Amino acid sequence: MNLSTSVVPDADLVDLQPTPERIAADVVAGLSTSPKRLPSKYFYDARGSELFERITHQPEYYLTRVEIGLLESRLADIAAVVGPRLHVVEYGSGSGHKTELLLAGLDDPVAYTPIEISRAALLHSVARLEGRFAAIEMLPVCADFTRPVSLPQPGRAPRRRLAFFPGSTLGNFDRDESIHLLRAMRDTVGADGLALIGIDLHKETAVIEAAYNDAAGVTADFTLNLLVRLNREIGSDFDVDQFRHRARYSTERSRIETALVSQRDQQVQVDGHTFQFEAGEAMQVETSHKYTDADFTALASAAGWEVADSWNDPEDRLGLRLLARA
Question: What is the value of pTM for the model shown?
Answer without folding.
Answer: 0.88
